[in-house]
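pinging the channel bc i need a second pair of eyes. not urgent but kinda urgent?? the chain im working w is below, pasted from the shared doc
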Amino acid sequence: MHDDCPNPEIILHKNKIGCVIQCAHCGDFLVKVENILYSCNMKSYNSLCNIINYVESNLEDHVVEIMKEKYVLICTPNDNINLSFSMEDFELLVELFEQSKHMLEVNELLS
Protein backbone atom coordinates (compact mmCIF):
# COMPACT_ATOMS: atom_id res chain seq x y z
CA MET A 1 0.00 0.00 0.00
CA HIS A 2 2.80 2.37 0.89
CA ASP A 3 6.31 2.19 -0.54
CA ASP A 4 7.81 1.93 2.93
CA CYS A 5 5.64 -1.04 3.99
CA PRO A 6 7.67 -4.21 3.34
CA ASN A 7 5.08 -6.75 4.46
CA PRO A 8 2.41 -8.20 2.20
CA GLU A 9 -1.14 -6.98 2.11
CA ILE A 10 -3.97 -8.89 3.76
CA ILE A 11 -7.07 -9.29 1.61
CA LEU A 12 -9.89 -9.06 4.14
CA HIS A 13 -12.61 -9.71 1.58
CA LYS A 14 -13.33 -9.35 -2.11
CA ASN A 15 -16.42 -9.83 -4.19
CA LYS A 16 -17.88 -8.74 -7.51
CA ILE A 17 -18.02 -5.06 -6.53
CA GLY A 18 -14.55 -4.67 -5.02
CA CYS A 19 -12.15 -5.55 -2.22
CA VAL A 20 -10.91 -4.43 1.19
CA ILE A 21 -7.19 -4.85 1.81
CA GLN A 22 -5.19 -4.14 4.96
CA CYS A 23 -1.47 -3.45 5.06
CA ALA A 24 0.19 -6.05 7.29
CA HIS A 25 2.84 -3.51 8.32
CA CYS A 26 1.03 -0.25 9.08
CA GLY A 27 -2.57 -1.50 9.42
CA ASP A 28 -3.99 1.03 6.96
CA PHE A 29 -6.71 0.03 4.51
CA LEU A 30 -7.22 0.18 0.79
CA VAL A 31 -10.87 -0.02 -0.23
CA LYS A 32 -11.62 -0.53 -3.92
CA VAL A 33 -15.26 -0.35 -4.92
CA GLU A 34 -15.92 -0.27 -8.67
CA ASN A 35 -13.87 2.71 -9.90
CA ILE A 36 -13.39 4.22 -6.42
CA LEU A 37 -10.08 3.74 -4.61
CA TYR A 38 -9.95 4.88 -0.98
CA SER A 39 -6.91 4.66 1.30
CA CYS A 40 -7.61 5.18 4.99
CA ASN A 41 -6.65 4.38 8.57
CA MET A 42 -8.66 2.27 11.02
CA LYS A 43 -10.71 5.24 12.29
CA SER A 44 -11.80 6.27 8.78
CA TYR A 45 -12.49 2.66 7.82
CA ASN A 46 -14.75 2.22 10.86
CA SER A 47 -16.49 5.49 10.03
CA LEU A 48 -17.18 4.25 6.50
CA CYS A 49 -18.52 0.96 7.90
CA ASN A 50 -20.82 2.90 10.22
CA ILE A 51 -22.12 5.00 7.34
CA ILE A 52 -22.90 1.90 5.28
CA ASN A 53 -24.59 0.21 8.26
CA TYR A 54 -26.66 3.33 8.91
CA VAL A 55 -27.81 3.50 5.29
CA GLU A 56 -28.68 -0.20 5.31
CA SER A 57 -30.69 0.25 8.52
CA ASN A 58 -32.55 3.22 7.06
CA LEU A 59 -32.63 2.10 3.46
CA GLU A 60 -36.01 3.59 2.58
CA ASP A 61 -34.65 7.06 3.42
CA HIS A 62 -31.68 6.63 1.05
CA VAL A 63 -33.32 5.28 -2.08
CA VAL A 64 -33.65 7.72 -4.96
CA GLU A 65 -35.06 7.22 -8.41
CA ILE A 66 -32.92 8.33 -11.33
CA MET A 67 -34.23 7.81 -14.85
CA LYS A 68 -36.83 5.34 -13.56
CA GLU A 69 -34.26 3.16 -11.78
CA LYS A 70 -33.78 2.94 -8.02
CA TYR A 71 -30.40 3.72 -6.48
CA VAL A 72 -29.08 3.83 -2.94
CA LEU A 73 -27.53 7.19 -2.19
CA ILE A 74 -24.72 7.41 0.37
CA CYS A 75 -23.83 10.89 1.52
CA THR A 76 -20.18 11.15 2.50
CA PRO A 77 -18.67 13.56 5.02
CA ASN A 78 -17.04 15.37 2.09
CA ASP A 79 -18.97 18.32 0.70
CA ASN A 80 -20.79 17.56 -2.54
CA ILE A 81 -19.49 13.99 -2.80
CA ASN A 82 -22.19 11.36 -2.72
CA LEU A 83 -22.06 7.76 -3.86
CA SER A 84 -24.85 5.97 -5.65
CA PHE A 85 -25.27 2.24 -6.11
CA SER A 86 -27.89 0.12 -7.77
CA MET A 87 -29.86 -1.94 -5.28
CA GLU A 88 -27.91 -5.06 -6.27
CA ASP A 89 -24.54 -3.32 -5.98
CA PHE A 90 -25.47 -1.91 -2.58
CA GLU A 91 -26.15 -5.44 -1.33
CA LEU A 92 -22.67 -6.43 -2.54
CA LEU A 93 -21.19 -3.37 -0.82
CA VAL A 94 -22.83 -4.29 2.48
CA GLU A 95 -21.58 -7.87 2.16
CA LEU A 96 -18.06 -6.62 1.34
CA PHE A 97 -17.86 -4.54 4.50
CA GLU A 98 -19.59 -7.08 6.75
CA GLN A 99 -17.19 -9.82 5.72
CA SER A 100 -14.12 -7.61 5.95
CA LYS A 101 -15.11 -6.59 9.49
CA HIS A 102 -15.48 -10.27 10.41
CA MET A 103 -12.05 -11.02 8.99
CA LEU A 104 -10.55 -8.17 11.02
CA GLU A 105 -12.02 -9.74 14.16
CA VAL A 106 -10.74 -13.19 13.19
CA ASN A 107 -7.25 -11.81 12.51
CA GLU A 108 -7.27 -10.07 15.88
CA LEU A 109 -8.21 -13.30 17.66
CA LEU A 110 -5.47 -15.22 15.85
CA SER A 111 -2.71 -12.71 16.57
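so The chain has a mean pLDDT of 91. and The radius of gyration is 15 Å. — does that match what u expected or am i reading it wrong
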